[in-house]
Design brief:
Layout (H helix, E strand, L loop, with lengths): L1 E2 L15 H8 L4 H7 L4 H12 L15 E8 L6 E7 L4 E6 L10 E3 L3 E5 L4 E4 L8 E3 L10 E5 L2 E5 L22 E6 L4 E6 L4 E6 L4 E7 L8 E9 L3 E8 L5 E7 L6 E7 L2 H8 L4 H10 L7 E6 L2 E6 L3 E9 L7 E6 L14 E8 L3 H9 L3 E7 L1
Antiparallel strand pairs: 1-24, 2-3, 2-23, 3-4, 4-24, 5-6, 6-7, 7-8, 9-10, 11-12, 12-13, 13-14, 15-16, 16-17, 17-18, 19-20, 20-21, 21-22
């Protein structure tokens, strides 16, 4: 079904379906299709809300709650940077094609700490941080041009740090080593208004507090393990839980998750390990396009893995070859249990196909009914394409 703003019409008389039956029906309806249902009547709107906010037994979170979407943007790297957008909704287990109004892209699209999209050139800087990236903010470019800097949204502040520069630029503008964001994992604690950066290869981390404009660290984020961690990522889950994702071995033997103490930045407990069959599925060639990518990029390596983390969901994927998308759900009760599953890739979506003129950007967003309603009224169209 294609959902557009034209679908948002209020019937004069709603069907006589009420209570638990109505909520049960809504439990099986994709989130994007629930928006028109909220316009039928007040009772339907309440039923939609209740179906999404109901609670599970004991301390278990509501299984039908809204979960972070995985957003995938494929962009032509040449002007005018035409872009296609797709999303995976884990609550509904569906892939959605997003038809957006034409956007003026000033440069190649980039992402940072799952939620932030931005475009940066020597003369301009644009960023978007709302869930569906409906609004773009255009501000002046940094005074000193940096290639591939760290870009983050911390509270109401935009942080630009690091990057590489020409020899005539001011060397004191950067206060970190290895500052190119290509090799850094970035995480933002929205409640404490702090940014964390971690070297993906060596696991050395720093924190930055924009309120006092000061860096702290270094901290060595290395679990006490006999395994060789060849690559790592960081991100925040619910309740300010800092999660460390470690890739084991140069041949990706395993992928493990640890929880990090948010104050001392010491890795203090392992909370999950990806099942071996999913590790192999992550690397497998599943289509002719993936085989073509394998020829271009070679066998998957730890540096080709990408991670997006939000709420209690971790998406893990190999961007250069294609492969599967693996989703890990961390228990919300603080116990640390993890459940793993493979997300079926939508046909027609290629994660970084073997084309020098195409780039792929992935990220997470907590998309709610209000966000979808605003998008539909702003001429966006959403079409449920396939079941994931």
């Amino acid at each position: 079904m294609e959902v557009t703003g034209d679908n948002l019409l209020t019937p004069e008389d709603s069907n006589q379906i009420h209570g638990d039956i109505l909520e049960s029906i809504f439990n099986h309806v994709p989130l994007v299709d629930l928006v028109p249902a909220t316009y039928v009547s007040k009772s339907w709107k309440l039923a939609v809300s209740t179906s999404l906010q109901g609670v599970g037994g004991g301390r278990r979170r509501c299984p039908n709650r809204i979960k972070p979407w995985l957003l995938i943007y494929n962009q032509n790297t040449r002007f005018p940077h035409s872009t296609t957008a797709h999303a995976y909704d884990p609550r509904s287990h569906v892939w959605i094609e997003i038809h957006e109004p034409s956007i003026k892209f000033i440069s190649a699209l980039r992402s940072s700490h799952s939620t932030l999209l931005y475009m940066l050139s020597p003369s301009s800087f644009s960023l978007s941080y709302d869930p569906l990236h409906l609004t773009w903010h255009h501000i002046k470019a940094p005074h000193i041009w940096r290639i591939d800097p760290i870009v983050a949204m911390v509270g109401k502040r935009v942080i630009i740090a690091g990057g590489t520069c020409d020899f005539e630029d001011d060397p004191l503008a950067v206060e970190m080593e290895s500052a190119s964001s290509t090799w850094l994992s970035i995480a933002v604690n929205s409640n404490k208004n702090k940014m964390y950066v971690c070297g993906e290869k060596h696991g050395v981390a720093y924190s930055f507090d924009p309120s006092i404009k000061a860096w702290q660290g270094p901290y060595r984020l290395r679990p006490q393990t006999t395994c060789t961690i060849s690559h790592c990522f960081i991100g925040f889950a619910n309740h300010d839980r800092l999660i460390f994702v470690g890739i084991i071995g140069d041949d990706i033997k395993s992928i493990k998750l640890w929880e990090v103490d948010g104050e001392s930045l010491e890795v203090f407990r392992e909370i999950g390990e990806m099942p071996k069959q999913l590790v192999e599925r992550l690397k497998v060639i599943s289509s002719e396009d993936d085989a073509e990518n394998m020829t271009c990029f070679g066998t998957p390596t730890p540096s080709s893995i990408g991670v997006s983390l939000m709420d209690d969901l971790v998406y893990i994927y190999i961007s250069s070859v294609g492969g599967a998308i693996i989703m890990c759900e961390i228990s919300g009760d603080g116990g640390g249990a993890c459940s793993w599953t493979s997300v079926k890739k939508m046909s027609g979506i290629d994660v970084d196909r073997c084309k020098v003129t195409q780039g792929t950007i992935l990220g997470c967003s907590m998309v709610g009914l209000d966000d979808l309603d605003k998008a539909l009224r702003g001429s966006r169209k959403f079409q449920v394409k396939e079941t994931g």
